[in-house]
Specification:
It comes from candidate division WOR-3 bacterium 4484_18. The protein is 31% helix and 0% strand. The longest helix is centred in the first third of the chain and has 10 residues.
């Protein structure tokens, strides 16, 4: 079962260009990151094919009154 998370903002553009991200990282003196980079940033907002497919399939929203219960 696919799952995900959501991050929202009213002020920042998640698709900002690499140069701007590099400038921000330098200005904030952010160094030594092992995973994140300005070049990876845009790709972090891309879904893999299996999740793109899952979004086209029928399903239901899990809510308090309709929980997901896994059965062995």
């Amino acid at each position: 079962m696919p799952w995900g998370f959501n991050l929202a903002t009213l002020t920042l553009d998640p698709l900002v260009d690499t140069t701007t991200l590099e400038e921000r990282q330098t200005a904030r003196q952010v160094t030594g990151l092992r995973y994140y980079s300005p070049h990876l940033h845009r790709a972090m907002f891309t879904l893999p094919v299996y999740l793109q497919k899952a979004l086209t399939e029928d399903g239901y929203v899990i809510e308090d009154n309709t929980p997901y219960v896994w059965e062995a």
